[in-house]
Amino acid sequence: MSRVQLATRPIYMQLRDALAERIASGQWKPGAAIPNEGDLAREFGVSPGTMRKALSLLETEHLITRRQGRGTFVNDPASEGLVDRFCNVRGLEGKPIVGRVEVSEVSEATANEMESERLQLRIEDPVWRIRRVRYEADSAFMYEEVSLPAELFPDLSDNPSRIVFLAHRYGLLLGKAEERLAVGKASGPAAAALRVAPASPVMVLDRVVRTIDGRPVEWRLAQCHLATRYVAQMH
Amino acid sequence: MSRVQLATRPIYMQLRDALAERIASGQWKPGAAIPNEGDLAREFGVSPGTMRKALSLLETEHLITRRQGRGTFVNDPASEGLVDRFCNVRGLEGKPIVGRVEVSEVSEATANEMESERLQLRIEDPVWRIRRVRYEADSAFMYEEVSLPAELFPDLSDNPSRIVFLAHRYGLLLGKAEERLAVGKASGPAAAALRVAPASPVMVLDRVVRTIDGRPVEWRLAQCHLATRYVAQMH
DNA sequence: AAGTGGTCTAGACCACGCA
DNA sequence: GCGTGGTCTAGACCACTTG
């Protein structure tokens, strides 16, 4: 047929973007089935094999789930297994420890050196800063300082939330995250929030979450008062 | 043509195993080019597309590298970027901190409860136990207790080494690893090796390395005296 | 210019889930 | 039995690398 790839970008990637846009925009709702491969291929005027490759890409990016004999479904970012995708602190059985999350402060500021480096912003670009504390069984175990590029999250202050829900609300599709861990000493605010002596040993978690395009959307610096029954899991 | 998949296992996976065997056995040496897609497809009596899928699988498993216009090459497990694939302790610039590795003890034993669970062995199955210390700039920063299934590593005692090299020597192809981290208190031997006070805060790294088939080949429990310039990186 | 992997096509049949 | 995704085929042309 026609439709040869003349531009540099492969067709299956253009298809991925087009399909991802339908999900991000809400045209295809979480949980719903999308048209089958053949119909999609005809609609976009490509061969089934090319459409299949685009769909496979979307599946590896956790945007859809394909099930033989049933169909292709849009993943719900709020579903079990995807909400806590970036939470590497686990119980000894391997299940994520999330706990109750309490936001203690939200403010708008301009990016400092650390934020501009981690979020790939210019110094002085506007950012949101959020302070949170996580409780497990009424005991604070994690103090978090979160920074978000304000440009991506207009009007955030009325309802800050966890990055997975924010991304969904603002039509951002999350991809991968990197996290670094170290043993450090509790900062003043962290020690106060966690009710431990200042400079107590804590686990420091430094995490950047990115969109599927690789753009940073969240930088989180957490201090964690780990009981031995909690561990951080990496793959 | 003929050659339809009658058995349950897809052809491209059987091809992957066949090609991986050639690498594991040393028939295809690290760094060398392997035949092109078309020739391989003809040799195995499959269509080019199927052979391509098998080769792509091998590439995602880090066994080969494909380069457009050049060819397909067997990865050297000792090459930069693959040796330290499982070392998650990094400097702040993101580069792995390996240090000088010194083996302090090798012994044969039978699996205890922990080992049988982590290595998926029966209690009392034979295991190798290795004690190692890692030095960076003449200062000990990590104490490791390593356990290996003895069945996979006959005659190990004369030359224990890091898992990447052992696997290559014994024809095992490494796949993924999981690692869990926690803040703990230094054990007696660890404190002695690291020259810190007993029960000092250390980072505990609990790692299982597996073959591409998913079989555990190494369990390592490390205690790490982390300077703030070292962190553990997870993805 | 020749050879390689990367992309794309237009079909086929198979295995699975469901009504 | 029907529709779905999973696998497989047998080619085509394109982009890249090297002689």
Features:
235 residues; Arc Repressor Mutant, subunit A; Chorismate lyase; 23% helix; disordered N terminus
CATH level-1 class of the largest domain in chain A: Alpha Beta
**Main β-sheet description of chain A:** 6 strands, antiparallel
**In angstroms, what separates the terminal alpha carbons of chain A?**
43 Å
Assembly annotation: homodimer
Describe the structure.
The structure is a homodimer of 235-residue chains. By secondary structure, chain A is α+β, with helices and mostly antiparallel strands. The first copy, chain A, has two domains: 11-74, Winged helix-like DNA-binding domain superfamily/Winged helix DNA-binding domain (Arc Repressor Mutant, subunit A, Orthogonal Bundle), CATH 1.10.10; 80-230, Chorismate lyase (3-Layer(aba) Sandwich). The first copy, chain A, contains six helices and eleven strands. Chain A has helices spanning 11-24, 37-44, 48-60, 113-118, 163-169, 188-194; strands at residues 33-34, 64-67, 71-74, 89-91, 100-110, 126-136, 139-149, 174-185, 201-211, 216-224, 230-234. Chain A has a six-stranded antiparallel beta sheet. In chain A, a hairpin with a 2-residue loop joins strand 6 and strand 7 (139-149). In chain A, helix 1 (11-24) packs across helix 3 and helix 2 (37-44) packs across helix 3 (48-60). The longest helix of chain A has 14 residues, at 11-24. Chain A is elongated. The model of chain A is unreliable at 1-6 (pLDDT under 50). The interface between A and B is medium-sized, with 24 and 24 residues. Chain B binds a DNA duplex (19 and 19 nucleotides) through residues 1, 3-6, 8, 10-12, 36-38, 46-50, 52-53, 55, 66-72.
